[in-house]
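Bit of a strange request maybe. I'm writing a small parser for structure token strings and I need a real example to test against, not something I typed by hand. Could someone generate the tokens for this chain?
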Amino acid sequence: MTRYVGLIGYPLRHSVSPAMQQAAFNYCNLDLHYEAWETEATDLRKVLGRVRQASTLGANVTVPHKEVMGSLMDELDDLALEIGAVNTIVNRGGQLVGYNTDAGGFLRALQQEGDFSPAGKRVVLLGAGGVARAVSFALAREGVKSLVITDIIAQRAHALASDLESVDSGISISVEEHFAEALPPCDLVVNCTPVGMRHSATEGQSPLDAGLIPKEALVYDVVYNPVETPLLMDAKKAGARTLGGLAMLVYQGALAFELWTDREAPIDIMFEAAKQAL
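Reply from user aminoacidic:
Good idea to test on real output. This should exercise your parser:
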């Protein structure tokens, strides 16, 4: 019997997760079908009813539902509870368990693809939503020296900074309402906003003025579609090192695959499928 996994978010035109996960399922000869379930906030409970069905293994969650999803789960993994965001759901006998694989995916990509060790480094985070929560907790646990959070919604940035105090790491955490004041000096800039994402209202835009990009920093854009965002193009022109979001997408997707199937994810297959879909 064919079983299903879905992607819950709105909009979903930019996503390559269906192609990536389906390639992994096919490679492992699993009778699973991955679908895109474009869902507005008012329909979340309805779509979760589908996730509870015996024919569904679980789901991924993407913008803008990662933060609210935790309150709709029957159970939360410890990491998802601490972060306050869910991007992976596993159906365990009709009970929905929420996980966060973004944190692990982000960190693996940063260390392996970006050749960057966060310990003792100064970091600026653009955005304070669901992805930013995963990223900031991952960085805090790795012992960064300082973390500056900035968001167009100041209250959201302050809330994240307050929640990070639960991580006993001794790092300096601050909020800046203006990007220009947040940036110098730093070792890592991470864009956790959707600005620049293909098929979005901000396609072709950058969250940061080109003149503000520090050339000594690694600029990491978690947006993966397009592969080279306006932010990354500006960062390269400024002489900064860059890292796109594709590796994070694949690594977090691999962790989700393993939660659903109890099998090792075919990461090379997932990388190739994601690249072809882009």
